[in-house]
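Duplicate of #3305? Posting structure anyway:
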C-alpha cells in the first residue's frame, strides 16, 4: 500500500498545520503506523507512532507540540502540528512503523521564522 500524506503548507513560526493520511480501516487496524519527517538534506526520521491499540509516541523534539491520532472511523490518521518551528520544515510521510511499504508522496511543510 502506497500511502499519500496531505495537508502541508507554508506557515510562520508558531503556526499550526494538520496533516492527514488515508487508508482503509482494515489496514490501520492491522498496522502500527508512523509519521516521518525528512528535513532538507537529511535522512527521513520518524516523528511519531500510533500503535494498533491506540498508544502514541512522539519524538522528544516535537513532544508537547505534535499529536498523532486516528479518526473515529479509523480511516484517517492525522498529525496535529502546533507551535511550528523552522526546524520542522521538510517533507512529511506516513507509512507503517515496521517494514515500511514503498514510500508515497509526502507533503511539504515550510515554516518561516
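Output from current build:
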Amino acid at each position: 500500500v502506497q500511502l499519500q500524506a496531505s495537508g502541508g503548507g507554508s506557515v510562520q513560526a508558531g503556526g499550526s498545520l494538520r496533516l492527514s493520511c488515508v487508508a482503509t480501516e482494515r489496514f490501520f487496524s492491522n498496522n502500527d503506523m508512523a509519521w516521518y519527517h525528512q528535513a532538507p538534506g537529511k535522512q527521513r526520521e520518524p516523528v511519531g507512532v500510533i500503535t494498533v491499540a491506540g498508544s502514541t509516541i512522539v519524538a522528544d523534539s516535537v513532544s508537547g507540540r505534535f499529536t498523532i491520532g486516528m479518526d473515529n472511523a479509523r480511516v484517517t490518521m492525522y498529525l496535529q502540528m502546533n507551535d511550528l518551528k523552522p526546524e520542522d520544515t521538510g517533507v512529511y510521510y506516513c507509512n507503517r512503523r515496521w517494514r515500511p511499504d514503498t514510500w508515497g508522496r509526502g507533503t511539504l511543510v515550510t515554516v518561516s521564522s
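Confirmed duplicate; merging threads. The beta strands are 5-6, 9-12, 17-22, 33-38, 44-50, 56-58, 66-70, 76-81, 90-96, 107-112. Residues 25-30 form the longest helix (6 residues).
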